[in-house]
Amino acid sequence: MKKHIITAFILLISIVSFAQNGGTDYSAFIQKADISYNNKQYLEAANYYSKAFNANSNMGKVKDRLKSASCWALLNNNDSAFYQLYRIAKKSPYTDYEELQANKSFTSLHNDKRWNDIISIMQNRKQEIEDQIKNAPAPISN
């Protein structure tokens, strides 16, 4: 009987712990962030994106970091926007600087000297990738 009570107690604790931690996973926060973003609730969205990254050991998908940067830029919080953009530029394979430049959410960042740095990092990475492809050995034919 004592064994059953202990087992039931452990099971109850496990269920409570799972319920408490279940809401902290990356996808759940991203889903909330995207809803807030689509409703133009940028501060709420930015906070959800931050929670998602924190729940995922500060890792995030490029599209989510772009939306986070967009939120911060639209809120005139340039430092936080640039933090996300630098993460993208330095730690991801994203090189579409033209898309970044065309994104109207980032217009307020264009006069900041960090903007040109972000664009330059992406241009250089894109060029490196193109050079690697160009200099790759030709495939061996039969």
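That was protein one. Protein two is written in the same sequence-then-structure order:
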Amino acid sequence: MTGTPTRTTPLRGRRVLISGAGVAGPALALRLLHHGADVTVVEAAPELRGGGFAVDFRGPVHLGVLERMGVLEELRALRTGGSAMRCVDADGREVFTLPAEFTGGELEVLRRDLSRVLHERTAGRAEYVFGDTVTYLAETPHGMHVDFARSPSRTVDLVVGADGLHSGTRAVAFGEEARFVRHLGHCLAGWSLPNDGGWTRTSEQFNVPGRMVSAAADRATQAGRACSSCSARRRSPTTGTTRMRTGPWSRRRSTGCRGAPRNCSPRWTARGTSTSTRSAASRCPGGPVGGSPCSATPPGG
């Protein structure tokens, strides 16, 4: 799957609305535009989101798709080069290190760079509407009627929900996501924090059965970036949601924190931004979709 395919326009005149301007939305927009569709992308955030983890691409299928989309060389120029992962014990002593060649794949880029590249490739031809969401959908003889939180209503031929694990578009179309989600019993959170632990690009990870925390320096800003996960199988009898278990582990010296254990204390939550989710399997009319909100308040959440 290499080279540039012959351009065809089987979708010319088709109006497509994509909800979500992260990675999947602009990637789909790029291919739909290639085939002649009129594309609008609506995004709840006021601008492109800059957070997220690194994205790895491995093997001929991944790289072939990027080449066919015409973004491979641009992403190669933005590659992080990968970073090693140093696993430590509770006292910060090295247990083993995985090299960057193993952890980063053949091509690793930051999610924010991937999102930006795809947006730039489509922004001149697709309409982007930031700071808005889909609030109502109805199928009519003329197409899909769509209402928005802020923008005027419109009718399109196809609506695609690409707005993440907790898709609001899915909820509008099919109902509350709790009807379609089966939780797999894990929570994951990532957040930024001041780099007063002296972290480098080599991520430092502390892991015990059912619990993990890691930290590293951001490639561009050198600020701290942290991630934690834990098994979370306790379910609320009233809400049906799963809550993250907390306890002494969250205050232990971990992730290779240098100096006093305070560097791994809950004061991490004082500043910065965070994202969190839970692993989940879902079922939905028309096929599998994303996950469900995490009711936990993870470190930094």
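The longest helix spans residues 111-122. Keep this in mind for the problem set.
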